[in-house]
Amino acid sequence: MSTVVLLIITGLGLGALYFLIASGLSLIFGLMDVLNFAHGAFLAIGAYGTWWAANHLPGAGPAGAGFLLAVVFGVAAGTLAAVLVELCVIRPLYGKHREQILATVGLSLAVPALIQAIWGADPLTFPRPELVSGTLPLLGVNVPKDRYLLILAAVAVFVALWLFNSRTRYGLIVRAGVQDRAMVTALGIDVRKSFTLVFAIGGAAAALAGALGGLYFGVVTPTQGMSLLIFAFIVVVIGGTTSLTGCAIASVTVGLIQQFANYYTVAGLGDIAVVAVLAAVLLTRQGGLTSKKSAERVA
């Protein structure tokens, strides 16, 4: 029983990490109809920004408020990168989906190469603050504290994104702009600013995933964002490309399947099991687990 509890909590922690990455993908695609393959680059920038700040930024560090400052720096760096990508790369290509894909794929390859050129290809040890070091007992099982942090962060991001989508003026403007940009512009509303805001929010979520992912894995690498992005895309497809709720459900499902399959079978079979679930969903529910709600583009 203790093993099952541990696998469930660690699976939820992994699912929370996937959700932090996939939520930004889902938000950008659901509201802006942009398939962003450079999303993993924002994660890598957030991870390395947090690592650099914890080791070099005055006032930051691996302890207490210093680590929080490092995370804020990393998230800010990822957010800034997302804004620059939207302004310089995506904005001139709205409505040109093939060109968007080619441009973002190029960025997804260029950013890790740049990071590797600056800090090398070897994994770098990620700072671990005392607050999330060690374990915390739950139902008689010692669970790593960083798993709890990931779960709490994912819940907070889910609530924030849901409120943005369904309760804010900007969420309404972006949804209307995707449907009929000319009409919204004719009303005197600058849709471009709203699109930039959405990209910034998505980049911030990815950068936060990079910062907390460093805690989960203990190291950061230049290609970490690319490898995690693969599972993020799987999560988005399983959950429904325009559904935030479906994204959350799929994240938990994928995380639990990986943990249980890897433990009770052989290492690596969890990835194959996730691909099998993806194939089953595509064959039976092409719109994802929440395909009936996907048309709403908000839930």
From TrEMBL:
<keyword id="KW-0812">Transmembrane</keyword>
<keyword id="KW-0813">Transport</keyword>
<dbReference type="GO" id="GO:0006865">
    <property type="term" value="P:amino acid transport"/>
</dbReference>
<feature type="transmembrane region" description="Helical">
    <location>
        <begin position="66"/>
        <end position="89"/>
    </location>
</feature>
<dbReference type="GO" id="GO:0022857">
    <property type="term" value="F:transmembrane transporter activity"/>
</dbReference>
<feature type="transmembrane region" description="Helical">
    <location>
        <begin position="6"/>
        <end position="27"/>
    </location>
</feature>
<keyword id="KW-0029">Amino-acid transport</keyword>
<comment type="similarity">
    <text>Belongs to the binding-protein-dependent transport system permease family. LivHM subfamily.</text>
</comment>
<dbReference type="InterPro" id="IPR052157">
    <property type="entry name" value="BCAA_transport_permease"/>
</dbReference>
<keyword id="KW-0472">Membrane</keyword>
<feature type="transmembrane region" description="Helical">
    <location>
        <begin position="195"/>
        <end position="217"/>
    </location>
</feature>
<feature type="transmembrane region" description="Helical">
    <location>
        <begin position="101"/>
        <end position="121"/>
    </location>
</feature>
<dbReference type="Pfam" id="PF02653">
    <property type="entry name" value="BPD_transp_2"/>
</dbReference>
<dbReference type="GO" id="GO:0005886">
    <property type="term" value="C:plasma membrane"/>
</dbReference>
<dbReference type="InterPro" id="IPR001851">
    <property type="entry name" value="ABC_transp_permease"/>
</dbReference>
<feature type="transmembrane region" description="Helical">
    <location>
        <begin position="263"/>
        <end position="283"/>
    </location>
</feature>
<keyword id="KW-1133">Transmembrane helix</keyword>
<feature type="transmembrane region" description="Helical">
    <location>
        <begin position="148"/>
        <end position="165"/>
    </location>
</feature>
<feature type="transmembrane region" description="Helical">
    <location>
        <begin position="229"/>
        <end position="257"/>
    </location>
</feature>
<feature type="transmembrane region" description="Helical">
    <location>
        <begin position="34"/>
        <end position="54"/>
    </location>
</feature>
<keyword id="KW-1003">Cell membrane</keyword>
<protein>
    <submittedName>
        <fullName>Branched-chain amino acid transport system permease protein</fullName>
    </submittedName>
</protein>
